[in-house]
Amino acid sequence: MRFLHTSDWHLGRSLHRVSMLGAQSAFLDHVVDRARALEVDAVLVAGDVYDRAVPPLAAVELFDRALHRLADAGVPTVMISGNHDSARRLGVAAGLIERAGIHLRTDPAGCAAPVVLTDEHGDIALYGLPYLEPALVKDEFGVDRARHETVLGAAMDRVRADLAARPPGTRSVVLAHAFVTGGAASDSERDITVGGVAAVSPAVFDGVDYVALGHLHGCQTLTERVRYSGSPIAYSFSEAAHRKTMWLIDLGAGGSVTAERIDCPVPRPLARLTGRLDELLDDPAHAAHEESFVEATLTDPVRPAEPMARLAARFPHALSLVFAPERPPEDDTVSYAGKLRGRTRQQIAEDFVAHVRGAGPDDAESAVLSAAFDAVRAADAEAAG
Q1: What is the C-alpha separation between 275 and 267, in angstroms, rounded?
Q2: Cα separation of 379 and 220, whole Å?
Q3: Per residue in 134-175, pLDDT tens?
Q4: Which fold does the domain 2-263 belong to in CATH?
Q5: What's the predicted TM-score (pTM) here?
């Protein structure tokens, strides 16, 4: 049986305030087209369908259109809620939607109730484990400690018990949304450490033929049977080097797994450039990034004037500026109090400007600082009198 494993759509999310709705729409069209062209038997979506619990209307409309297209194509879809989703909202009308072949798994209590599909080799049980917030589900699973590995382990115990009661030779797939040990994170994932240690061992999923993971945004293989698909679109510059893909999984007789990466459309590449502003503007080596989304780290010792406007003249899609000035190392042997000793308030303020900007204030700026200190002194004297 053939599956298309994807996750972390984050519908409604932007990149540095630039809307990604167009790119998300193109990706969803791509999912449907690939599912048809590759004769996929089911699409697996391992959580974080939306970017937030109450998604914008445009994101809901995208989701609705994708479900209709998958249903019209006759491609069953199994989908779980992630830590960004509202499980209750995503699961509304799940019973009705299931009649169209769209199987939403958002209730932790139903984790051992699989979607069962059949091919020439027999049954395949697909178990959807929605994101399990330890503090909220520990009573459901009867565990004492509110930790990710504890609750996920209890959920998998239920899965294995159900699987053991099925006909011999039944193959199994689990969808889960978690931070599994061995995975590499990026800047885009929301921290899930609240409520217990975040990482869980891949061994939690022992006994299952394939585990379709969501949460981490890089496509990763933890074991041959445990994989992250990653997000289909880069949602931070930490993902600039990612190759955005989905997994095409063939589950053969006896549970053998064959995996192939299927590329996702790239709306606009991301580039991280570092150097002095004039170098970034003049270096011909950067010509390939002129149409990219750009994050520029400026190393000028003194912060240049209007850096973003000047950068945008060459890189019109520049979105982020980081300042990392090249400066001589400071003397760490001198204490902060020692640096202030014998300095006037005016001198301390001028030192601060030099520290932040790389150059001290000019005459006009020094005059503004002096006037400000004079005004403070006058106000203090008036209050004291």
Answers
A1: 26
A2: 63
A3: 999 999 999 988 899 999 999 999 999 999 999 999 999 999
A4: Purple Acid Phosphatase; chain A, domain 2 (3.60.21)
A5: 0.86
